[in-house]
Amino acid sequence: QVQLVESGGGLVQAGGSLRLSCAASGRTFSSYGMGWFRQPPGKEREFVAAITWNGGSTYYADSAKGRFTISRDNAKNTVYLQMNSLKPEDTAVYYCAARTGLGGSWHSWGQGTQVTVSS
Q: What pLDDT shows up at residue 54?
């Protein structure tokens, strides 16, 4: 298990950008795959992006491709989500999560950070 704390959410106009950060505790951060998920109002949580333990591979939901970029800095125990060209439909609570191994379950979750995109 690892403790995760998201930050960087806020209110932005459509077309704007935000960078979310997720800081992890512990010395084993570099061994975890990391991901970002979001839960829009009244909807279920959905996958946004993921990155392998060494940053060598990244994965995106279709809705995020070309606009969002996931990255990590293992020296800082932090994973990022750069979000550009934001749309009102990107409004959601964004969560980061950690898993062990590419096919492992997401076993640790942050508390979430609110992103609101106004039209």
A: 92
Q: How large is the C-alpha radius of gyration of the chain?
A: 13
Could you tell me how far CA 15 lies from the centroid of its own chain?
19
* pLDDT tens per residue, range 99-110: 987 778 999 999
How far apart CA 81 and CA 49 sit, in angstroms, is 8
Task: Give the pLDDT confidence of 8-54 residue by residue, as tens digits.
Answer: 999 999 999 999 999 999 778 988 999 999 999 999 999 999 999 99
DSSP at 33: E
72-96 CB burial, b ≥16 within 10 A, e <16: beeeebbbbbebeebeeebbbbbbb
Give the up-direction half-sphere exposure of residue 73: CA atoms within 13 A in the CB hemisphere.
8
Residue 79's pLDDT is 98
Show the tokens assigned to 53: 């333990």
CA 44 – CA 64 distance, rounded (Å):
17
In DSSP terms, 65 is beta-bridged to: none
